[in-house]
Amino acid sequence: MADKKSMSGFKQDDKGVWWISNYVSNAKLRINYKIKKLLDYKQSEYQQISIVDSVAFGKMLVLDGIPQISTGEGFIYNEMISHIPIVTHHNPKKVAMIGGGDCGNAREAMKYAEIEKIHVIEIDPQVTELCQKWLTPAEVYEQDQRFQIFHRDGFEWIQEQQGEYDVLMIDRPDPVGPGKKLFEPEFYQYVYNALSDDGVVVFQSGSPFYNQSILKKTVKQLRTHFPIVRTYLMSIPLYPCGLWSFTLASKRYDPLQANLSKLHYSDTKYICPEMFLASFVLPKYVHDLLEI
Question: Which of 14, 171, 254, 267 is catalytic?
């Protein structure tokens, strides 16, 4: 294990041990997470990967000092990025996720028996390794014959796909390092090409308050390719401001017209039919930002 002094965001004082995250560029916002213990740490080819046991959120995946998901509230992110595009599509058979090395969104997709293939494309095998050890045990998804993980650069992988997938989930990180390419204009074209004729895609599109430029650019790029583009919101306590956005784009199906009887929510903790629809109700400032 590396020297803790070299790890991004780690600090100890007389009140305890803290993980300090500068979530917004130029350190406009700083959040401290009190932790009980550093459980694991690796410096991979791409990033620093840490698993910490936090006081408020349970076990937490941290990449380059920025918390990504936790056992305490990770169900919110995973349910909202997966169920909404799957239910929006009328008959999804092939589903893929770029990112999401913890495989939580894949676990949600497995609830839909009609899906025939569930693929995860994660650039960093060490993220998968640590998440299997501490967050989602491998046996949870490896027993499902539909599941397959590819440790590849998502930007390169998607260029090889042509009309292959009915649903894509772009669980992209912040626009830095290898993840920066997933925000480039050409990436949106590659995504469009990788979808079937009636395909649906969802993008992680940042905070509607702190990441307004990311959200606005995401919507603008998607509107150049797709006839239906809708942003939806959810409350994620781990993230700054607590409010987060995904943006769905579809070649044919409108999520507001989805058949909600297909929604598998008997064992979910956040999403239900009412929340599915309510998440698309946007505050006026977001309407104005997106020029809806």
Answer: 171
